[in-house]
Design brief:
7 helices, elongated, alpha+beta
């Protein structure tokens, strides 16, 4: 498996897509039932293949990721050739960027001395989708990129 298996909930949400996936392999509902009962290892392999296909589709469309912790924001713009990062670190004691109060403080003080903003760009490894997946596994979430674009405009 290249990525990770979709959760039970994710697989349930994609029930129809999974049926279509099995149909492309000429596996009927009765055959699938038989495979699950008589060859569970084959059923597991099919679920793994389907999971990888879903992840590939998702990863190919991602443009922006964000990973926000109590004192840091990592904002990513994923282009065709590289990952661009805006990293923000807050040094104000008691501020948690994940709270309404903390983010409100940040919006008022992002240009102050207790906020550090850095940028970086990094070429992908041999497989950009694996690089993107690793960011998600480390806690990044897919976004529309509003924060990245906002700070990118300020930095320029």
């Amino acid at each position: 498996m290249k990525y990770r298996r979709l959760s039970k909930e994710q697989l349930e949400e994609m029930h129809q897509e999974f049926i279509n996936f099995l149909a492309t392999q000429s596996i009927t509902a009765d055959e699938w039932k038989s495979i699950k009962e008589n060859k569970p290892e084959v059923a597991e392999e099919e679920i793994d293949i389907f999971s990888d296909l879903v992840w590939e589709g998702v990863l190919s469309k991602i443009e922006y990721l964000e990973n926000i912790s109590a004192t840091q924001m990592h904002l990513f713009h994923l282009t065709e050739k590289e990952m661009n990062l805006i990293a923000i670190r807050v040094g104000q004691p008691g501020i948690d960027l994940r709270t309404k109060h903390g983010f409100g403080w940040f919006k008022q003080n992002y240009m102050g001395e207790n906020v550090e903003i850095m940028t970086a760009a990094k070429a992908y490894s041999d497989d950009k989708f694996v690089d993107r997946f690793e960011l998600i596994e480390k806690g990044a979430i897919i976004t529309k990129g509003e924060l990245f674009r906002y700070f990118d405009d300020i930095i320029e």
